[in-house]
Design goal:
Elements (H helix, E strand, L loop, with lengths): L1 E6 L2 H17 L4 E6 L1 H7 L5 E2 L8 H6 L1 H18 L3 E5 L2 H13 L4 E4 L11 H8 L2 E4 L3 H8 L4 E3 L3 H11 L4 H7 L8 E5 L4 H15 L6 E6 L6 H4 L6 E3 L2 H6 L1 E7 L2 H9 L3 E5 L5 H10 L7 H6 L6 E3 L5 H10 L5 H17 L4 H14 L1
Helix pairs in contact: 1-2, 1-18, 4-5, 5-6, 8-13, 10-16
Length: about 375
């Protein structure tokens, strides 16, 4: 059968690669066309129709600045779908673009499957209407989404969370801590404090100064900054003099005693690695911004560990509540030997139990192929 897979960001490329490998394994006659990156190219044995580097525009202003490119990508993808005539269109997150592809595929009678769906339960809930109209099945990676989507009239199945298997697989082959320290010229003796200020320039600009100030209050740690892919290392030196480890966030967090983490997927990976954390998201820091956010976000939490557990496991310090004083107080609460730390680790264990141990890419590929054959 023919499969058209669309991923528009780096994380989607990684998840898409696992999915493509499983599709090819389960369907020996599979033909794959895709939007994605190098990982998916390796799995599919061919280049992407469009590389995600030419698609990953985030935020209203960035999309407007690159509107011509966005529309051109959409036109190219639609033409490819029309000529390739896949048996299935498989979408991976990236809703602004992918839901438009879904509408077009649906008009051609092509079934649409959404793997790693948009977080419509948090904001932009109006997208549910389009998902219900165009998507044959939602392949959810978050257990609490199942009830949500079913209540909205969508077909949904939980396939497990890819981060669980990815974290476990990577952790199993990590070198010893001493080798990590030596490779990155980090001193031994003190425990590490991971500073993970995000993957975008704005996030780093807003969050790293707070993290730097907090880290200076804890001389018992060696603070180390996680450098994100695609970010010029000189950016970090504008806000902190602490060492930067580029392209090794996973290893840094695993070898750290605690972490300050900007809200996002990194919070889930940090929890799965068992490193106590404080979730920080400064943005412009205004109380008005928080009030606006609270008005539009439809859920009690924003970090994945708390959302999955349905209760507070990690402290979320957002916008005007993210200050040097509040972050420092929470970090002190989860220091080694504290009840706060033990409580957080028990919460991590509960969260992992809820996620289960399913191999999500395999489960998703099986669900798609079984449904198509049926």
């Amino acid at each position: 059968m023919k499969y058209f897979v669309s991923a528009g960001e780096a994380s989607g490329d990684l998840h898409g690669a696992s999915l493509v490998r499983e599709i090819v394994r389960l369907d020996s006659d599979a033909e794959i066309t895709f939007l994605g990156g190098d990982s998916m190219a390796l799995a599919a044995g061919k280049a992407p129709l469009i590389h995600y580097r030419d698609m990953a525009f985030v935020g209203f202003s960035e999309v407007v600045r690159h509107l011509g490119k966005v529309l051109g990508n959409l036109k190219t993808a639609k033409k490819a779908i029309e000529s390739f005539r896949p048996d299935a269109l498989v979408l991976i997150d990236y809703p602004s673009f992918n839901l438009r592809l879904a509408a077009y595929a649906c008009s051609l009678g092509i079934p649409v499957y959404y793997y790693i769906s948009p977080k419509v339960w948090a904001w932009k809930e109006w997208r549910v209407k389009d998902m219900r109209r165009y998507c044959r099945m939602i392949l959810s990676i978050l257990p609490f989404e199942v009830g949500y989507f079913r209540n909205k009239g969508l077909e949904v199945t939980y396939v497990g969370n890819p981060s669980v298997e990815e974290v476990d697989a990577r952790e199993a082959v990590l070198p010893p801590r001493g080798e990590f320290l030596l490779r990155h010229s980090l001193p031994d003796g003190k425990p590490l404090l991971a500073l993970v200020p995000g993957s975008r320039v704005g996030e780093i600009r807003n969050n790293l100064p707070i993290m730097d100030a907090v880290a200076r209050r804890f001389p018992q740690f060696t603070p180390v900054i996680a450098g994100a892919p695609g970010i010029d290392m000189s950016l970090y030196s504008r806000f902190s003099a602490f060492p930067v480890v580029a392209g090794a966030t996973f290893e840094l967090v695993r070898n750290s005693s605690a972490a300050l983490v900007t809200s996002g997927t990194a919070t889930l990976e940090t929890a799965l690695l068992g490193t106590p954390q404080v979730v920080c998201y400064r943005s412009n820091g205004s109380r008005l911004s928080r009030k606006i956010m609270e008005r539009f976000i439809k859920c009690d939490f924003v970090s994945l560990p708390n959302l999955i557990a349905g209760r507070e496991i990690v402290k979320e310090l957002l916008l005007d509540r993210c200050t040097e004083q509040t972050v420092a107080a929470e970090l002190a609460r989860i220091m080694p030997g504290t009840e706060g730390r033990d409580e957080m680790l028990r919460g991590y264990a509960r969260m992992r139990g809820i996620l289960g141990s399913s191999t999500s890419a395999s489960a998703a590929a099986t669900a798609i192929i079984s449904d198509l054959r049926r």
